[in-house]
Design brief:
Oligomer: single chain
Helix content: 10-25%
Order of helices and strands: HEEEEEHEEEEEH
Number of helices: 3
Strand content: 25-35%
Strand order of the largest sheet: 5-4-3-7-6
């Protein structure tokens, strides 16, 4: 069963990993196969505590001074240890795009892409990699086209 990337995070699959589906977003216990958190969250470990963040609330993530910072819609920033590439892999298929070596942006919140800068809802402006600008532009266009075909206007 194919799940469009646009709907994957908003409408999690109705099947479980035990039914042969990918285990993306699920943490399994030994014993009975059961999800311990919804498919649309991530867990960020910060100062010995686990912060569970809904993916829909994430504006962008950045790596700064060897620390992962996740910025959310409510203006909060959650910090923890980790690698941006690991977070990018965990969020693959959930409309996130690496716009710079230090930034991972959530495409639904992009309001503007201007040469070498992405503006997000809320006003945050992030740098765009110069060597990957055209790839980023193409990925954003593809995402918007996918949205348009998935939810056509009347």
């Amino acid at each position: 069963m194919d799940i469009p990337a646009v709907n994957h995070c908003m409408f999690p699959p109705s099947y479980t990993a035990s039914a042969g589906a990918p285990a993306v977003g699920y943490r399994m216990h030994s014993g009975p196969q059961k999800a311990v958190r919804p498919a649309c969250t991530i867990t960020l470990r910060s100062r010995g505590e686990d912060q569970i963040l809904p993916i829909q609330q994430i504006l962008y993530a950045e790596i700064f001074d060897h620390e992962l910072h996740v910025h959310t819609l409510d203006g909060k920033t959650y910090c923890g240890r980790g690698h941006l590439s690991a977070l990018e892999e965990q969020l693959s298929g959930c409309a996130f795009l690496r716009c710079h070596r230090s930034y991972l942006v959530h495409l639904p919140y992009v309001t503007n892409l201007c040469r070498y800068q992405i503006t997000l809802s809320g006003g945050a402006v992030l740098p765009v990699s110069k060597q990957n600008y055209l790839v980023i532009q193409r990925e954003l266009s593809s995402y918007l086209l996918q949205l348009k075909t998935a939810c056509p206007l009347p």
